[in-house]
Amino acid sequence: MTDSPGDPVTRRQLRDGTTITIRPIRPGDAPLERAFIGALSEESRYLRFQKWVAAPSDNLIHFLVDIDHARHVALVCTRETAAGEELVGEARYGTGPDGTDCEFGIMIADDWRKSGIAGLLMDALIRAARARGLKRMEGLVLRTNGAMLRFARALGFRTEAFPGDATIVRVVKEL
Description:
Blueprint: E1 2-4, E2 7-8, E3 10-13, E4 19-24, H1 30-39, H2 42-49, H3 58-65, E5 72-81, E6 84-95, E7 101-108, H4 117-131, E8 136-142, H5 146-154, E9 158-161, E10 168-174
Parallel strand pairs: 7-8
Antiparallel strand pairs: 1-2, 3-4, 4-5, 5-6, 6-7, 8-10, 9-10
């Protein structure tokens, strides 16, 4: 089953027995995306967007769900509930101008931290980047976001200073 060419839908079972689905994001996911971001704690939104985001604007939701799946790739992690599908995490990248590198971002619902979905999403995102021939993946992380820096290092990313902004650390992985 695929949503766009070459982007498989994967179902996995977590350690606690919960079944999750990892799939490409779709424009129809706008309500799920809005609910997902809206349910994040203020701190989680700040750490991801590196600024205070009270509620996601229509423009932000459109940017996050209406993507080309080539230069901007986004994978979501969902689970089925009695009320329907719930988005509990997402990982995405956008390619650089030369098309050989990409910048990634990841968000996990507060209640889903340490569930294993972050690693599954990043593994799928890294595989997608490699399959598209990208050579390097990087991300910008707030220096105070120790959990994200530890996670990136565990995935094989190296850290380096970000020129001109001591509050940011660049994490880089050769693909």
